[in-house]
Amino acid sequence: xxxxxxxxxxxxxxxxxxxxxxxxxxxxxxxxxxxxxxxxxxxxxxxxxxxxxxxxxxxxxxxxxxxxxxxxxxxxxxxxxxxxxxxxxxxxxxxxxxxxxxxxxxxxxxxxxxxxxxxxxxxxxxxxxxxxxxxxxxxxxxxxxxxxxxxxxxxxxxxxxxxxxxxxxxxxxxxxxxxxxxxxxxxxxxxxxxxxxxxxxxxxxxxxxxxxxxxxxxxxxxxxxxxxxxxxxxxxxxxxxxxxxxxxxxxxxxxxxxxxxxxxxxxxxxxxxxxxxxxxxxxxxxxxxxxxxxxxxxxxxxxxxxxxxx
Length: 310
Prior knowledge:
- The protein is elongated and about 65 Å long.
- It is about 50% helix and about 15% strand.
- The protein has helices at about 10-15, 15-20, 25-30, 35-50, 55-65, 75-90, 120-135, 150-160, 175-190, 205-220, 240-255, 270-280, 300-305; strands spanning about 110-115, 140-145, 165, 195-200, 230-235, 255-260, 285, 295.
- Strand 2, helix 8 (about 150-160) and strand 3 (about 165) form a beta-alpha-beta unit.
- Helix 11 (about 240-255) runs parallel beside helix 12.
- The longest helix is centred in the C-terminal third of the chain and has 17 residues, at about 205-220.
- Mean pLDDT is about 85; it is low at about 1-10.
- It contains 13 helices and 8 strands.
- Strands 3-2-4-1-5-6-7-8 form an 8-stranded mixed sheet, with helices on both faces.
- It is α/β, with parallel strands linked by helices.
């Protein structure tokens, strides 16, 4: 799926440990009892408790029940459940112009990163930039989160750490101007990728969402085909709240992919199923820790296998 990462990481399985232990580890035992009504009810309760969501849980159960007559034994039941969960996650990832697309990337490739306060946007940007740098790409990061001085400082620290240029203005500056200057710098320096940070904002704040739309328009004025990807960073620990956030950001700026951050700190990792099913948004990456390498490409089969590991 991605040319960005040349290897798989075991950290996805480790990051899902809380969710698996809390909810999914119980499922194998359920199927030992057969597939009667009490089993369906308990399976529904477990999926809902893991924040898979009501609509997605109903879909999975309906599909599983439709297959139940041909299922023989608990192993087949578990395998069928895995199949249905993977099917929910296999969303077409070709919404943007980078990941999942054919042919060469545009230069510079422009990635706009959005999300609410505290999701880990800036850290995710640092990890993403590090992954690009590891592939020998020249990266420019735009510190368009001008609301927090700490965000600008944090991005600068990442830049120094991984060898990427950071374009920043002073706190309180126009975010659109920062984005414009970052693109101009990238073009003049022959950068391969521009990653633009934005201020965390509550999805319900109309004025702040309009400011985000303005940043998007500024990017398009400078490079009409950009942004080539709009990544929404969701905090896995927020559960179903993440679904509502995704709806608003998708309406505002056309999200092309999701990064599920803080997966290692959550027992509610099931929300990824709801995001994929209800919004049709592909999950592209998962955050598996705090280090520069703790960003893994999302693989539906690997994700489900880790959740239902015995």
